[in-house]
Amino acid sequence: MKSSASTVHPKQTAWGHVKENYRLYAAAFLIVLIAELIGMKKFNAGPALIVIYPMLFAIVIGVVLGKDIVKFFTKEETKKASSLVLVAITPFMAKVGVLAGANLPELVNVGPALAFQEIGHIGTILFALPVALLLGIKKEAIGATSSTCRDKDYGLICHLYGSESPEARGALSIYIIGFLIGTVYIGFLASFVASFQFFHPLALAMACGIGSGVMMAAASGTLATIYPEYADQIVMLAGASDMLSAIVGIYFTLFISLPITKKLYAFLEPKLSFRKRLKYEGDV
């Protein structure tokens, strides 16, 4: 007689899980294949260089196939897909750790100036969190405003709160918005700031790195077009800045910006929550 410990339900095995969710895996494979076949697209809009990466096409296709448009995926499948995001993003988190160890000499040579740019995220918290609360957003605001919500940040939030938590939903929302409009926005922003000729081109190059390869490429490509004499240096500094932001940023979010966001949320939420005030007024 077999013990109960050795009896495993098919759905609890890896193969059973794949069989149960075969539609999700098959659709994900086809979406990635289509997006990669489309490839990266570049075009100029005035002085700005707009770069559209395959992941943007993958997101758009996934949205179209969702339960609100084509309805290929059911509501239950969309919930399961959200929990699988953490599994997919974990290898990237490991890659960031490997890059940190392999590039320590290079990071030291770049200097501390690039690391200090992370302090700017605190300003984002002070501005964005009150606005989010005034709009009636609850705990989603913690995930959405505590960082730039790129791969590393979303993975961190999922590890801390769970992939189906309100905080993870907020981070994922900004993550998607960054892909949908972030590359276009930052390309125009780079050309707009450069037009004032107030900052040195290399200072602007350092500002291109926010921990997102997509946005860094769009901003640095725009600057390299505007300042061809600094093109190589712009690409090098932007890449170093982006790498440092990805490495330092995860620790900055974990130990500084996220705790500040939580403290500020606890202080401001009772005072600024628009939906809560409406509820109380309705009760009266």
Write a concise synopsis of the structure shown.
The chain has 284 residues and is mostly helical.
Rg over alpha carbons: 22 Å
**Mean pLDDT over the full residue set:** 77
Query: How many DSSP-defined strands?
Result: 2
Number of helices: 14
Shape, per Cα inertia axes? globular
Strand order of the largest sheet: 1-2
Strand content: under 5%
| Straight-line distance between termini | 65 Å
Number of domains: 1
Class based on secondary structure composition and strand pairing: mainly alpha
Helix amount: over 70%
One letter per element, helices H and strands E, the order comes to: HHEEHHHHHHHHHHHH
User: Looking at the chains present, what oligomeric state does this protein adopt?
Assistant: single chain
Runs with pLDDT <50, length 5+? 1-11, 277-284
Major sheet size, sense and barrel closure: 2 strands, antiparallel
Kindly describe this structure.
The chain is mostly helical and 284 residues long. The protein has one domain (40-54, 82-283). The chain is 73% helix and 4% strand. It is built from 14 helices and 2 strands. It has helices at 14-20, 22-38, 54-64, 75-102, 104-110, 113-116, 120-134, 140-145, 151-161, 166-194, 201-207, 213-226, 231-272, 274-283, and strands at 41-45, 48-52. The protein has a two-stranded antiparallel ribbon. A hairpin with a 2-residue loop joins strand 1 (41-45) and strand 2 (48-52). Helix 11 crosses helix 13 (231-272). The model is unreliable at 1-11 and 277-284 (pLDDT under 50).
Keyword list:
284 residues; mainly alpha; two-stranded antiparallel sheet; 2 strands; 73% helix; globular; disordered C terminus
